[in-house]
Amino acid sequence: MSSEEFEKLHEIYKSLFEELKLMPDRALKIHGEERKRLVRSFDERQGEAEEVLQGMEEELRAAPPSYRNAMSTKLRLYRRDLGKLQRDMKSSAPGSGFSSQPGQGSHHGIYSSQNQQSTHLQSQRALLLQGTDSLNNASQSIERSQRIAAESEQIGTDIIEELGEQREQLDRTRNRLENTGENLSRSRKILRAMSRRLMTNKLLLAVIIIMELAILGAVVYLRFFQHKH
Fewer C-beta neighbours within 10 Å, C or N terminus of the chain? Predict the structure, then answer.
C-alpha cells in the first residue's frame, strides 16, 4: 500500500465532500436553469467522490489488517454521508432530472486522471523493483561465484604447494634409499673381504697347528726313541 497515494485520495475526497454538502441548501434558494446546472454539477461531483472512495478501497486492500479495518469503517461512514447528501439533494431539487445512480458523472474528472497516472506509475515502479531485484540476485550470484572461484583457487594453490612438499620429501627419501643401497653394497663387499680373510686366517692357523703338532711329534720321537737305541 502507498500511504502517500491514500492520503492524496483522502484529500481529494474531503475537498469534493465540502463542495457537495453546500449544494442541497443552495438548491432550495434557486430555480429554473440555475438549479438544473447545480444538480448536474452535484451529479458530477458525487460521481467523482464515488470513484475516489473506490480508489481508497483498492489502496486499503494491501494495507496491514489493523490499519485496513479502521479505515474501512471510516470509508463506510463516508459512503453513508455521501448517500445522505444525495437524498438531501433529491428532496431539495425534486423533478430536476437528478440521477439516483452513483458514478454517472464525468468519468474524466479529477480522480480519473490521477488514478490513471497513479496506476501507470505503480506499474513502472513494480517493473523497476522487479528489475532491481533481478539485478540484485544476479549481483549476489556473481559475488557467490567469485567467492567460490577464489576459494577454489586458494584450495588449488594449497594442494599444489602440498604436492610440491611431498615431492621434495619423496626425492629426499629416494636419495636416502640410494645412499643406503650404496652403503649396503659397500658393507657386503667389506663383509666378503672379511670372510675371505677369516677363512685365510683359519687355514693358516690350521697349517700352523699341524706344523706344531708335527714338530712336537718329532721332538717326542727323538727324545724317547733315540735314547733307547
Answer: C
Could you give the CA distance from residue 152 to residue 158 in angstroms, rounded to a whole number? Answer: 10
For residue 1, what are the CA distances in angstroms to 20, 62, 68?
A: 28, 5, 10
Q: Which three three-digit cell numbers place residue 33?
A: 436553469
Task: Tell which residue, 29, 16, 42, 30, has the closest CA to residue 97.
Answer: 42
In this structure, are residues 34 and 42 in contact, taking their beta carbons and an 8 Å threshold? no
Domain range 3-107, CATH class = mainly alpha
Burial 18-46 (b: 16+ CB within 10 A, else e): eebeebbebbeeeeeeebeebbbebbbbb
Phi-psi region of 102 (alpha: psi -120 to 50; beta: other; left: phi over 0): beta
> How many other C-beta atoms can be found within 10 angstroms of the C-beta atom of residue 106?
14
Residue 49 neighbours by CB under 8 Å, 6+ apart: 13, 16, 17, 20, 82
Domain boundaries, the chain: 3-107
Residue segments in the chain with a per-residue pLDDT below the cut of 50: 1, 97-115, 118
Give per-residue pLDDT as tens, 52-95.
888 888 888 877 777 777 788 888 888 898 889 888 888 876 65
- Report d(CA 112, CA 129) in Å as an integer: 25
Q: Express the helix, strand and coil content of the chain in percent, nearest 5 each.
A: 90, 0, 10
Q: What is the CA radius of gyration of the chain?
A: 60
